[in-house]
Amino acid sequence: MRANATGRVLHDPKGGSFRFDAGAVCLDFAHTGGEGRYAIFESLHEPADLAEWLAQPPLAVAMTAAVTARELTAAKALRQAIWDAAHARASGRPLPASAIATINRAAIAAPLIPELAADGTTAGWAPPVRATQALSTLAREMIELLAGPLAERIRECAGDNCPLVFVDTSRPGARRWCAMERCGNRHKLRALRARQAMEP
To answer: Is the pLDDT score of 187 beyond 80?
Structure first.
């Protein structure tokens, strides 16, 4: 991955948007949509949508082969597995066997291979560049996250009914909210109103 900058702008179907940094690209990917009640947040409707998401920093993947419908299906399966595994780890539950199997299966494929440009100061991905490689890279990042020192810092937002998950990469490890501008401010506002209601 080119840069350490993670995070994307998430859009609420009811209106509004906010920047959410999950702390890892694989967790950012987990928030591109979902199944069941999360289907309203779906952003990967067709193969081109997956190509566009992968083309954004920090991955900045320029495909040399068009994303296929099969790769889109595999991407959604990996996304769900990452989501399920992250929520299980955040709540201290055992990881679902199906999620582990899906992540491991995606990681088997060759990952993206970094390549230094001729100027020696910039890097890209060595061709050919396919979606399967990008998915392998995301799966491998999730494996490192789950098996590494930050595994205990995978958390679910403390906001009411907010299912967003992130890895707390802050030095004190005190992050509670998906975003201060969203759930953090809502909590502050509720606390303020509660204090005001208690005052004579």
So the answer is: no
Q: For the purposes of burial, counting CB atoms within 10 Å of the CB of 167, is it exposed (0-12), middle (13-18) or buried (19 or more)?
A: buried
17: which DSSP letter?
A: E
The whole domain housing 164 covers 8-198
Average pLDDT score, the chain: 89
Cβ–Cβ < 8 Å for 167, 145 = yes
CATH number at residue 76: 1.10.3300.10
| Domains identified in the chain, total number | 1
Burial of 163 (0-12, 13-18, 19+ CB in 10 A): middle
Of the candidates 146, 2, 137, the residue with the CA atom closest to the CA atom of residue 86? 146
CA–CA gap between residue 159 and residue 118 (Å, rounded) = 48
CA separation for the pair 12, 56 (Å, rounded): 20
Distance, CA of 8 to chain centre:
9
**Dist CA 155 CA 46 (whole Å):** 30
Q: Region 1-9: what's the mean pLDDT?
A: 62
Measured between alpha carbons, how far is residue 6 from residues 24, 37, 77, 120, 187 in Å?
A: 6, 25, 22, 24, 24
pLDDT tens string 42-64: 999 999 999 999 999 999 999 99
